[in-house]
Amino acid sequence: MKLRSKIYLYSSVLFAVLLVIMNLVIYFMFSRLSTDNQLDQAAAETAKIAADMRRVGTGVAAPELLRAYVPIEGMLRLLAPDGSGPAPVTSASEQEISRLKPVYYKDKLSEIIKVDGRSYAFVTTPVIWIDGIVMNVQMTKSLESTMNTLRVLRVVLAGATAFALLPLLLSSRVLSGLIMRPIVQMTATMREIKNSGKFSRLTLEDTSRDELVEMGRTFNDMIALLESNYLKQEKFVSDASHELRTPLTVIESYASLLKRRGLTHPELFNESVEAIHSEAIRMKELTEQLLLLAKHHEQWDLSMKVVDLKELANASAKVFRNAYGREVTVNAQGEVKGYSDEAKLRQLLFIFLDNARKYSDEAITITLGASGQESHIIITDRGIGIPSGELPRVFDRFYRVDEARGHQGGGAGLGLSLAAEIAEAIGAKLSMESVEGAGTSVMIRIAAESRGRQ
Hints:
By secondary structure, the chain is of the alpha+beta class. Helices cover 54% and strands 18% of the residues.
């Protein structure tokens, strides 16, 4: 059975059962109140009759007293403990109950009895008669008028239940359709993705904010994430197959050269080993950068917090001074804080310091500052600079300003592309200014404090 049919069936049955139970409760409460009220009235009438008969005493014969008080639809009996007493007086319409066997009761009693399928209120009250004997005054009174009212009530409630079930069944069907609509759309979209191989999304109502629309938005976000990861994977495979071909060819060529002439020409041995080592390092860096670029931002495990930028810059400058013997100066006025992931911000700083080291010979300067709600880091070199026409493309993947320069001292053209990815992940903004022959300045702008970003 389909989920829509299950929702329709279960909700309809549930509502119908609740409606029937509610009407049954109403009926039985009304029935109980009505019969109890009739019994109370019969008991009060019987008590009054017994008091009147006791007061009249010997002035009037017992049969005449019974005829005087007999109910319109019922019977009145005076009964001694031994079952003797005057004949009961019965109304003309209720002669059947006169055949009831008389039973003497010591105490008061009121109950509903059935005679030939008809309901009666039976009440007996003990009374001390004029001769000192305790007699029973028993009244049997028809409840048919009350029973007729209850029959009408049953018909009305049954009709109301049937009438209410019609809109209830219709609303259950509409409700099941509303609940299932986004699921049906989702299933159709997934089937379309499977058949076409192209990612697509649900069409949602922007004005609605219910849980079903929220589920649709989550589905669209999931499809966007899958599409992003798929494109990154596809890009990774394409880039890796393209960019790794050259260093592998170089390594294969030098390995072949070593195999043929390495033992007889020592000068070729050193050259080949150096080239193979250099290409292996380049392949390692290239692979690490490609793997990091292939990761989605949400998989980077960011730890955002307030970072001491001056301490970070001094530590990075010290690393570069020790590793490359280059002078790196840090300029900062007082304490400068920034809200970022410290490890990723350090990696971002290293990328720009490494670029400055590769394309300049003079000292590199790191300048820290703050303005409003932002802090900034500026890395400046006095190197060869970048032509103004090339600046818009320097953050593209595998783009090199100078191919020859890139192969000699530069990387694979992924460093700045990776920097742009890191900056986007940590919420930093990058800008670059350069003058060919004079040097390059890169500014990293980050929030000075948390703005609610997780």
